[in-house]
Amino acid sequence: PKRTRIHHLAEMKQRGERWPMLTAYDRYAAEIFDEAGIPVLLVGDSAGNNVFGYDNTIPVTVDELMPLVKAVVGGAPNALVVADLPFGSYQVSPAQGLETGIRFMKEGGAHAVKLEGGARFAPHVEALAGSGIPVMAHIGFTPQHEHALGGFRIQGRGDAGDRLIEDALALQEAGAFAVVLEMVPADVAKRVTGELRIPTVGIGAGPDCDAQVLVWSDMAGMNRGRKPRFVKPYADLGSILLDAAKAYAADVRGGEYPDAEHSY
Ligand code: KIV
Ligand code: NA
């Protein structure tokens, strides 16, 4: 197997090749997405909603994400595995961010980390990137800032578009290898993508980013609740699993499982 490296992502931008990214939180998903040729897997703090059942990503801790990172790294022989830095694990200082990044590399086996925030976090990116930890930045709507941003709202409209570009440039300058643009107008994402040397990864950011990312449970219809407008479900896994569970339950109740074929 040939591991995706950050220089491959830079080369794809130069060649104008788009690439897909998905979250993964466990071994089976990692194996399947790696086999599907997804070059970058994110162990997102979206595990807060999608694995742990929290209302948002804010309560997620490093200790909660660590075993998920290990599981995904173990299941993905080819993908570049990015570990999300949870809320409170880097905001205090660049040194705190570096310590958290080191933990995800040493204990989790991650190949890179991701953190949320604009130019204020350039020193954090620099501390990590300068120490050998590739950093993916994340601007626009940043879920860890939900309460400061006043809920799930599109970012970078009007004058805020210029600030978004300044943030992106500052993060690139600090050494980020890519930047996620979440819920920003398509024309602003297009401008950022054109200005940056490093790839942009869009989620709700229109068609002109260098890459796209989705939460896998949204992408595959495992999450049957309300979805943001940018989500396109490519399967109805939730219904498939519901039907399987119902069929199993009926068989057990009816005495049809296990039959002779499934007994010793
Ligand atoms: O945690 C997450 O899933 C993310 C992506 C949606 C970018 O940060
Ligand atoms: Na995240």
From TrEMBL:
Catalytic reaction annotation: (6R)-5,10-methylene-5,6,7,8-tetrahydrofolate + 3-methyl-2-oxobutanoate + H2O = 2-dehydropantoate + (6S)-5,6,7,8-tetrahydrofolate
Binding site residues for 3-methyl-2-oxobutanoate: D45, S46, D84, K114
Gene Ontology CC, one term: cytoplasm
Cofactor(s) annotated in UniProt: Mg(2+)
List of residues binding Mg(2+): D45, D84, E116
Active site: E182 (proton acceptor)
EC number(s) per entry: 2.1.2.11
Alphabetical UniProt keywords: Cytoplasm, Magnesium, Metal-binding, Pantothenate biosynthesis, Transferase
Cofactor mode of binding and number, as noted: Binds 1 Mg(2+) ion per subunit.
Major localisation: cytoplasm
Localization per record: Cytoplasm
Database matches in InterPro entries: Pantoate_hydroxy_MeTrfase, Pyrv/PenolPyrv_kinase-like_dom, Pyrv_kinase-like_dom_sf
GO molecular function: 3-methyl-2-oxobutanoate hydroxymethyltransferase activity; magnesium ion binding
Subunit structure as annotated in this protein's UniProt entry: Homodecamer; pentamer of dimers.
Protein family per UniProt: Belongs to the PanB family.
General function of this protein: Catalyzes the reversible reaction in which hydroxymethyl group from 5,10-methylenetetrahydrofolate is transferred onto alpha-ketoisovalerate to form ketopantoate.
Name this protein carries in UniProt: 3-methyl-2-oxobutanoate hydroxymethyltransferase
Origin species: Pseudonocardia dioxanivorans (strain ATCC 55486 / DSM 44775 / JCM 13855 / CB1190)
Source organism phylogeny: Bacteria, Bacillati, Actinomycetota, Actinomycetes, Pseudonocardiales
